[in-house]
Amino acid sequence: MDQLGLARLQFGITTIYHFLFVPITIGLAFLLAIMETIYVRSGNEDYRRLIQFWGRLFLINFAVGVVTGLLQEFQFGMDWANYSRFVGDVFGAPLAVEALVAFFMESTFIGIWNFGWDRVSKQLHLLSIWLVALGTMLSGFWILTANAFMQEPVGYKMVHGTAQLSSFGALLTNPQLWVEFPHTILAAYLSASFFVLAVSAYQLLRHHYPELFQFSFRLASIVALISAVLVIFVGDMQASHLRTSQPMKLAAAEALWNTTSMHAPWSVFAIVNGQAQKNYAPVQIPDMLTILAYKSLSGSIAGIHQIQAQYVQKYGPGNYIPPVAPVYYTFRLMILAGILMLAFSAYAVYLLKRSRFQDKRWFLKTLEWSLMLPYLANTAGWIMTEVGRQPWVVYGLLSTQKGVSSTQSVPMSDVILSLVIFAVVYGAMAIAAIYLFRRSIHWGLNPPAQQPELTDEEMFLGGSHG
After folding, report:
1. Beta bridge partners of residue 267, listed in sequence order
2. Can you tell me whether residue 279 is helix, strand or coil?
3. Which residues contact 418 (CB under 8 A, 6 or more apart)?
4. pLDDT tens column, 413-444
5. 2, 26, 127, 301: which could join 136 in a potential S-S bond, CB 3.0 to 4.6 Å?
6. pTM
7. Same domain, yes or no, for 99 and 184?
8. Which of 293, 197, 309 shows the shortest CA–CA distance to 245?
């Protein structure tokens, strides 16, 4: 593995790890705000204990997410110096706004919310959590503004070989941003809802405060169902946008090697051989890809070979085909996880209407395991989005190979050493996060002083304490 491969591996691992926590943070803040609104309006003090329970899990997730996000910043200057110089003027504005406005807004009002119980009025305390929820959304917006530029560059001019910001308004109206941002936020709401569903199911199976955890179960079920439907709708818009913005990514996601003239089938599954550039044992739905891309039965979908030829003419000699198999399979993993979450949330709402969900212990146990679904969907979606853009780090402007730091400025040994250090640090954070999550979930709504001591086996494998 060369310098480029090591740098990509390091950034990919650290970004995926960081993205495990971001959607849960955004979604949990929103759910906490809804819960506290109901608490303030109802005056039911038992809801306060439930909110504080979910608040502990939110704070653990937020803290680990912040730490993992900070470590990523060092990689831009270390592993991707050429990229940072090329795009720094464009990236500087949205990232500065994210840090100075959104992140400080989150941090300030998280402090008020966490330490303000009985110190500020209920109305101010409620306002603080809604501002935290708004801050997490704004943070995601500004990060995605920067990412959307990498997917579809707008609002820039080239000066001495670097991209210079020419229109901040163009960044904010980037078409890629307005299909990417709602999809990400709705996916965050769906992710947090399944987090709440899984933990609530765990508590209900053990008969821990069933009335309160029924409340969080109901809320999460409804938000999950609404979010799942909207995620599919917005995701369809995003996929349609790829046809014009990144046709190669769309072709790779479908392993479509040659252009279809009119009626393109959607590939449900196939064995993709990227080296031979062939698909084996395909299972297809006739015309579905054309319908998804054009919302009609007519329309051509460009194939990988034809797009490659076009790009050679446009950008010069080179291989512009991304790793097709990973893009193809991660796209289907994301879809599968999304369909399962839609089905589970719909069934949960159905059982709620019939007031029978507590009788379905098999379903509650299934929901415990469904916790992995949003993590799989988010990770697969990120891999599909970023790997499908290759070989570009800024689409059509800067190749990934040219964005990496030179071996003269950053020797390969330094990249290897930093990769090992990051692996150790992230591994330690993973152990700490799992420990804290498990401990808080086992505590439930009771304060730690009232809990019996947990053994290591109970802490990590599960116990019977409420």
Report:
1. 284
2. strand
3. 10, 78, 79
4. 888 888 888 888 888 888 998 999 988 888 87
5. 26
6. 0.91
7. yes
8. 293
